Amino acid sequence: MRIAGLLVLLMTFGFPRGSSKAAEAPLYDANADAKKQISAAIAEASKSGKNVVLDFGANWCGDCHALNEQMHKPPLSSLIEKNFVIVKVDVGRMNKNLDVAEKYHVPVRHGIPALAVLDKRGTLLYAMDQGQFADASEMSFESIQAFFEKWKPNN
Question: Is 25-151 assigned to CATH 1.10.510.10?
């Protein structure tokens, strides 16, 4: 009976655009302490020499799922693994972690996913302030890869 109910819900509301995996595991942890995650990521980056990417998004966001899928495709996945510490910051229904987004100059009202790049010391290098990835499901793999190539650390 539970399976039938789940199927009715999925057929009624569907999966977020760009991913059929949305029901498996949430991309963004609704219970995470974003500030602690960012502090931990900066500590890790300071040891490894990587940059930190703050990925502001939400589980309901199809473009967030599309970006996540692209980030896990080779060769981009290995570029990211080698050069970045990723922190997924949940913005809920544009009502969570807005102070964190503001601190890093990311106005999520312009669209999500929105990324900020920090160096290994936590200094802001770049912030998406115009919803540059808000249409990630329509973006080419190459353009997303070019973003990460541009912001990898100069080791």
Answer: no
